[in-house]
UniProtKB/TrEMBL annotation:
The keyword Repressor does not apply. Pathway: Amino-acid biosynthesis; L-histidine biosynthesis; L-histidine from 5-phospho-alpha-D-ribose 1-diphosphate: step 1/9. NCBIfam families: hisG (TIGR00070), HisG_C-term (TIGR03455). This is ATP phosphoribosyltransferase. GO terms for molecular function: ATP binding; ATP phosphoribosyltransferase activity; magnesium ion binding. Catalyzes the condensation of ATP and 5-phosphoribose 1-diphosphate to form N'-(5'-phosphoribosyl)-ATP (PR-ATP). Has a crucial role in the pathway because the rate of histidine biosynthesis seems to be controlled primarily by regulation of HisG enzymatic activity. Its cofactor is Mg(2+). It comes from Lutibacter oceani. Residues 211-282 form the Histidine biosynthesis HisG C-terminal domain.
Length: 285
């Protein structure tokens, strides 16, 4: 039986979030400690644990069929690789930072300056837009220390909370791009494995939709039901069921997390009572 090969980051937060996504898709990985390859026991899938920066080439060569990878890595090393799904986790940005004491007005200030980074292509392409030429110093790991030891005038690195920059006396001055985990596919994937990918992607989409939504149940007097329904952005139409108490109904619907609190406030203002909010594990549309 054919198995689809998926690459995930060997360690770190992206590794944990990737494996959690597969678990939420109902896929059990037989994963021993320090294994570099593991198979699923209930789905035709094999996981390869690889260095993030090596994954684009593995995709290009067809060694793996798909990968969960940071979009920033594809921008740097794999712009020819197709993205089939944005996954919504491991969000970050790639930014330029300078020492706090440096007066910064625009990117022109960095013309000819030494930039320490693990993302040379990203830096060069960004600076080209402004006709600025940086002096790239390629560093793998601990980029943020470069200005403090006199190796560089500025850095380009991934930023999540900004705490690492703060600890190293740096300030963020340019946000070059935003990134999140994505599902990328090899240009050499076989037709058989494409069918497996379609099944996997169906599961992933159901999980992601569930993560973005809440199931909301509420009670309301019958004379308020119509006005409440108008407020609900449900999948199609809310479910309305009569309660044992005459003149009252129970209304069930799905609300997106991003608009959840605004919708709840409006529902209460329009007569909804006894609201119950339930997480959704998966949502198949």
């Amino acid at each position: 039986m054919n198995k689809i090969k998926i690459a995930v980051q060997k360690s770190g937060r992206l590794n944990e979030d990737s494996l959690q996504l597969l678990k939420d898709c109902g896929i059990s990985i037989d994963n021993g400690k320090d294994q570099l390859k593991a198979s699923a026991s209930n789905f035709p899938l094999e996981v390869l644990y690889l260095r993030n920066g090596d994954i684009p080439q593995y995709l290009r060569d067809g060694v793996v069929d798909i990968a969960i990878i940071g979009e920033n890595v594809l921008i740097e090393k794999g712009e020819d690789i197709s993205i089939v799904e944005r996954l919504g986790f491991s969000k970050c940005r790639v930014s330029l930072a300078v020492p706090k004491e440096v007066k910064y007005t625009s990117i022109k200030d960095l013309d000819g300056m030494r930039i320490a980074t693990s993302y040379p292509n990203t830096v060069i392409n960004y600076f080209k837009k402004f006709n600025v030429t940086p002096d790239i110093h390629l560093i793998n790991g601990s980029v943020e220390i470069a200005p403090n030891i006199g190796l560089a005038d500025a850095i380009c690195d991934i930023v999540s909370s900004g705490s690492t920059l703060f600890k190293n006396n740096l300030k963020e001055v340019e946000k070059m791009l935003t990134s999140e985990a994505v599902l990328a596919v090899s240009p050499n994937i076989s037709s058989e494995n494409q069918k497996i990918l379609d099944k996997l992607q169906f599961r992933i989409q159901a999980v992601l939709k569930g993560r973005k939504s809440k199931y909301v149940l509420m009670n309301a007097p019958n004379n308020k039901v119509e006005s409440i329904i108008k407020l609900l952005p449900g999948m199609r139409s809310p479910t309305v069921l009569p309660l044992a108490e005459p003149g009252w109904s129970s209304i069930h619907t799905v609300v997106e997390k991003n608009s959840f609190w605004e919708v709840i406030d409006e529902l209460k203002a329009n007569g909804a009572e006894g609201l119950l909010v339930v997480p959704i594990e998966k949502m198949v549309l």
